[in-house]
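Moderator note: this is an archived Q&A kept for reference. The question asked for a predicted structure of one protein chain; the sequence and the answer are reproduced below.
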Amino acid sequence: MREETRRHLVRTRALRPAAIVAAAAARRRRPSPLGDAGRLMLVAADHPARAALGVRGRPAAMASRVELLDRLQVALARPGVDGVLGTADVLEDLLRLGALDGKVVVGSMNRGGLYGSAFELDDRFTAYDPATIAAMGFDAGKMLLRIDPTDPATARTLESCARAVSALAERHIMAMVEPFWVRRDPDGTGRNDLSPDAMMRAIAVAQGLGRTSAYTWLKVPVVAEMERVMEASTLPALLLGGDPEGAPEDVYASWEKALRLPTVYGLVVGRAVLYPPDDDVAAAVDTAVSLL
């Protein structure tokens, strides 16, 4: 990002904050999130708000906002990329940069469970709410649902997610729910249980939230036995890219296989394509798009 562009973003926030709302109102929207292809390729950029800045062993990879915005603009400009998922700070910068015209925009809602904190599983709603997502003309609201049977904070998260699902549905807006079942290590550390049975339990809970599931979509990781896992639901689902481990070609192969399942409608990928090992964002995005 050129220094003058960065200064322009800061000046806008300092002197003309109402310009952000105006940019949202002027944004060209798509008639439908899915579009003509019937698939979705979204780039996720809501990790920093939860203090999750690391990628592939680089603990501060996402710390530079200027670099993140540069990489997001490259990704959003590639053919086949439908949109972006982020918190208000990121999406508002992209609005001012003109990068969201004709794109699907998903507001991230609960970012209160900060990475590595004592309250990490207390996923409070500290970012977008349904009313603001509707007012900004965005297409969906995404929420993280981590279920730990041993942590009382899970009950509050379940209730908050249920209310958000209902409030989004009232406005005919997609609710994107990302469920995980959490297990505790002997030292008390909570970890997402990515076993097939645990994912099926998490999906079962997530799809039952709210007064209606008519506008609910799932965002799920690629795990073993995905065919069996996805039989747990008739809701449309998007695959979660996550922080990849192992060789990129192995990761892409697992995504390609899961994308063949009948309820899977696309990908939500963040760090895997924004911070690939060779730093070639365009090539990584093109590879992910080709899998669709």
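Archived answer notes: The beta strands are 40-44, 83-86, 104-108, 140-147, 174-184, 190-193, 216-221, 237-240, 264-269.
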